[in-house]
Amino acid sequence: MSAETLASREVPKKENRFKVWRQTRPFWAGLFTMLGGVPIAYLPYGDLRLGNVTLTMATTAGAGALIIGVLLITLGLTMWFQPLVRVFAGIAAIVLALVSIPVSNFGGLVVGFLLALIGGALSASWAPAPEKEETEDEPVEAEYDGEPAHADETGTVMTAGVPDQRDGATETSIDAKGGRNSAG
């Protein structure tokens, strides 16, 4: 964004700042991508205790899973704070999600894989809303008051900028039933 663009925008109310910030970037894509990176990075190192039983998901590819998880979290933050690279970040998140299947316990028990895949797809497909351009030369529509506005040089009566067609049919005019009128 340029300085002129930032200066021309009006500052939103205090309670609407987060809403405006969220709508100007792929917010949900970044959130899903970051949430997908957490189980992918955590499961190879974490352990779950159920009473006296400890469930450990340690794998030999723990470092790869940690790298993939950290990269997915970084890509999610990139989607939030650098929305111009959203397509690259989205495609990279999809590729990392696919790589996490063999590397990190089926992509963080499929949960991390699905969240990262959805986040990457949302980021790659997100497009910013078009900015409203304020122009001074917008045409103003005239209101029709039932009276002819004026006649042009040829004498054709113009009503609100459109020729008045109430007088006689021509060879090419169409009647109300959809057929052609015969002139004469």
From TrEMBL:
Transmembrane segments: 27-45, 57-77, 84-103, 109-127
Ranges where the record places region Disordered: 128-184
Keywords recorded for this protein, A-Z: Membrane, Transmembrane, Transmembrane helix
Coiled-coil stretches: none
UniProt KW Transmembrane keyword: yes
Composition bias type Acidic residues, residue spans: 133-146
Protein name: Integral membrane protein
Species of provenance: Streptomyces filamentosus (Streptomyces roseosporus)
